[in-house]
Amino acid sequence: MADSHAPPPATADLFGSPDEEAPWDEPIAPGAVLLRRYACSRAAELLAAVKAVAADAPFRHLITPGGQRMSVAMTNCGDQGWISDRRGYRYGAEDPLSGKPWPAMPDSLARLAREAAAHAGYADFAPQACLINLYRPGARLTLHQDRDELDLSAPIVSISLGLPATFLFGGLQRADRPRRFPLVHGDVAVWGGPSRLAFHGIAPLRDGVHPATGASRVNLTFRKTR
Ligand SMILES: O=C(O)CCC(=O)C(=O)O
Ligand SMILES: [Mn+2]
């Protein structure tokens, strides 16, 4: 073995594998923060949970009220799931594909969302919905507000896994020019308070392959719906 006496890298003990960085916070607006690499150490567990959810409630491309097929494929877990169709955007307790309740939110997901919210200054976040977005290269989410929730006092917690993406984060008016932030595997975005209704989106995903997810990006967005 080469160099068996070399000390382990400084982060090895705390963060599991030597190539994992220690997380750090990057505030981006009042009430909004990027928790850089916050979910890295739990990514494998999160992706296993996503796989189990998708086995029950498969990813599908929803249709917007305007009749467009969304480029991002979606599914949900939790008491409520976000859906879109010709009738509009809304939350519902059942998966319209199966008529059955959405799969329960795995504890690993709920726990991480709650901890991330608390870390960002939002104590006692109890998400009822976890929307899971699957992006393949070219998929995008145009600028929008998350405003289908009845309780806007709770923040949004959004975990990025797999391929990197560009997060567009604007202001409270659609016309406010969004700033662009790279989001990579394990980053968690939390926004609430004065930023709860900020316009945001994801630029078209670029080609690539990630060791954890292959040619895709997985995003988990946690919300208190009512
Ligand atoms: O994929 C992301 O990072 C953002 C997802 C999002 O904004 C949404 O699902 O409403
Ligand atoms: Mn959103």
UniProtKB/TrEMBL annotation:
GO process terms (BP): oxidative RNA demethylation
Binding site for 2-oxoglutarate: 133-135, 217-223
Binding residue positions for Fe cation: 144, 146, 200
InterPro entries linked to this entry: Alkb, AlkB-like, AlkB-like_sf, Oxoglu/Fe-dep_dioxygenase_dom
UniProt domain Fe2OG dioxygenase: residue ranges: 126-226
Ranges of Pro residues composition bias in the record: 1-10
Pfam families: 2OG-FeII_Oxy_2
Positions of the UniProt region annotated as Disordered: 1-23
GO cellular component: cytoplasm
SUPFAM superfamilies recorded: Clavaminate synthase-like (SSF51197)
Keywords noted in UniProt: Dioxygenase, Iron, Metal-binding, Oxidoreductase
Any one GO MF annotation of this record: broad specificity oxidative DNA demethylase activity
Cofactor: record remark: Binds 1 Fe(2+) ion per subunit.
Cofactor(s) listed: Fe(2+)
Ligand binding (substrate): 82, 89-91, 148, 174
Name the record gives this protein: Alpha-ketoglutarate-dependent dioxygenase AlkB
Source species of the chain: Bordetella genomosp. 9
